[in-house]
Specification:
The chain is α+β, with helices and mostly antiparallel strands and 75 residues long. The chain is built from two helices and four strands. The chain has a single domain, classed as Alpha-Beta Plaits (2-Layer Sandwich). The longest helix is centred in the first third of the chain and has 5 residues.
Length: 75
């Protein structure tokens, strides 16, 4: 009877991203880091809770978050 939380998979379309940094600044679980070109990279994918803040607020529509199916644990 463990606590289950939503998980997400993040895809960044680099050719659309202008590097505004909103996703990096406001991600509640700090999933993103900035690469050497000033663009976001998914540094901690396991921490994504599929809140979709980054997807909904990206001004370039460069991020897509897919909610992953919950893993079934052994009892």
């Amino acid at each position: 009877m463990g606590n289950k939380r939503k998980r997400g998979s993040i895809r960044i379309f680099d050719n659309w991203c202008k590097g505004c940094g909103l996703c990096i600044a406001f991600c509640p679980t700090k999933v993103f880091d900035m690469n050497g070109e000033g663009r976001p990279v998914v540094a901690r994918p396991q921490d994504c809770v599929a809140c979709k803040w980054c997807e909904w607020h990206c001004p370039d529509f460069a991020i897509v978050v897919t909610e992953l199916a919950e893993e079934k644990g052994n009892a």
